[in-house]
Amino acid sequence: MSKEQSAINAPVSLPHLRLNIRGFHAAGLTSLPSWIPIEPDKQSGNRSNRATQPIRPETRWKDLAQLQRGKGQDKLLGSLRIVGRLRCLLSCFATLVAAISTWASHPELLESDLTDAELIEEISKFRSGAGHDFSYDPSFEAFGSTDSSEPDSSMKHYLAPFDRFSGDQSTIPVYAPFSGEITRVTNETNGTRVNKRVEIESSVNSTYLLVLFHLDLDEKYPQIYNDWPAHLWPEHLPDDPSYTTRTVSAGDLLGYADMRGSNDFDVAVLWTDTDGDRYWISYFDLMPDSIFSAYQVRGATRANLTISKASRIAVPVTWFGGRNDDDWVTLSSTATVPIPLWVVFAVSLGVSLQAFVLSRQKQKTLRNSRPMAD
């Protein structure tokens, strides 16, 4: 047997077929050996007729090349699908990491809630349209947020007690949520009534400033301290010289919310980043689960207490001073304790078993009630 015939008859892998076909052409062969798969004749359906007919090697080479290209394309498509899925997974993972990092970007500084949660019926959402615009004020940029990209909104939370607890300034207690120092006390007015706006800087992390509004402040704290500059605030007053302390510890009673002629009081948090830029953030961003659980059992979630910046830009506030129910989270009057998953599974299993037993009993009763054949 010649070397050419040995090469032709030897089993070879698909990539070597191209060499064999060229060998056929060089050897002057006009037919292929039987071990090469040949398509049935499209007209007669007779495979042997095609095999014995003269074959142009370049035609067969095109067929085999197309076959290889088809397989290559399948592999390429499969690889692209895998790459696409990996990119999707990576994108989802990146989104999840970004969401977690955003949610966890602020420390859980709060050691106490600012009031007794059971007294509160409604809470306005961060970036809501409740009340008035409280986002970026260029005239007060030295004292508030420096982020001019925020759309007009209320970047604080109003807390509205149940109606039965409203009407005075001695029912809704207000506590210091974390330890720190009072850095500013200014007068606020509600009609003819005067109450206080109080700012407290955290002693654990001085980049966080808590702002409480409409507070009837206890007399041991300064009633005016570090008031706004006179050129910005015509009602500027000198510091109160007679007070006991400006230092507060978490849980200290600061006073009571002034609910005379008002439905709510409010809280805001100002955060300063490493570049010195300041941003309003949600009070609940600093709240650990151990405190937030008092709101969670009444139907609140962290997500529904905040309106995203993108959502606020998409739907600008046009109703300042009016009521929009979408601005508020209404808490249930009674706690709705989450049911553990194992309890749900056990109850579902019990119900299923009971239904199965009843079904079998019914089938047995039907069989016993059938008339017997004579």
Overview of the structural elements:
By secondary structure, the protein is of the alpha+beta class. It has 2 domains: 1-105, no CATH class; 117-330, Glucose Permease (Domain IIA). It is 30% helix and 18% strand. The protein has 7 helices and 11 strands. Strands 1, 2, 3, 4, 5, 6, 7, 8, 9, 10 and 11 form an 11-stranded antiparallel β-sheet that branches. A hairpin with a 5-residue loop joins strand 9 and strand 10. Helix 2 (17-27) runs antiparallel to helix 4. The longest helix is centred in the first third of the chain and has 47 residues, at 57-103. The chain is extended and about 95 Å long. The model is unreliable at 2-32, 35-53 and 95-104 (pLDDT under 50).
Task: Give a quick summary of the entry.
The protein is of the alpha+beta class and 374 residues long. Helices cover 30% and strands 18% of the residues. The chain has helices spanning 3-9, 17-27, 47-52, 57-103, 289-296, 309-314, 341-369; strands at residues 120-124, 157-161, 173-175, 180-190, 193-202, 208-217, 247-248, 253-257, 265-272, 278-281, 328-330.
Number of helices: 7
How would you describe the shape?
A: extended
Q: H/E series, N to C? A: HHHHEEEEEEEEEEHHEH
CATH hierarchy class name of the largest domain: Mainly Beta
What CATH architecture of the largest domain do you see? Answer: Distorted Sandwich
